[in-house]
């Protein structure tokens, strides 16, 4: 997937993270700890090359060897693209249970993106915890209403 994205346009690591997040409609957000080692590996294998550009950021582009490797693995790329399309479809029109599952998966992906969480100050941390606790309370209230209706 990373090789495929870079083949479309030279990219920075964070651009690739955002492209994957967008392609999966937010269901999967790879962490920098996944993307940067992958970029390094692809570069060491000769599939990508990098150059330092603005503000000392590395921009990656595909090499002829990388393009050949991508061409040889079109089936794998097609499977990934189909799975991402299915994720988008679920995100934008699944049944109600799938809507909840999708929301939970997006929430988990956000929490796994530890770099974002590490950058929070104390007030932001408290605010997010409050939002989460409020959401849990609201879900419990909805569940209590459903449980009361079942008893009738």
TrEMBL record:
Source organism superkingdom: Bacteria
Transcription regulator PadR N-terminal domain mapped to chain residues: 2-71
InterPro entries noted in UniProt: Tscrpt_reg_PadR_N, WH-like_DNA-bd_sf, WH_DNA-bd_sf
Pfam families: PadR
Protein name: PadR family transcriptional regulator
Species this chain originates from: Providencia heimbachae ATCC 35613
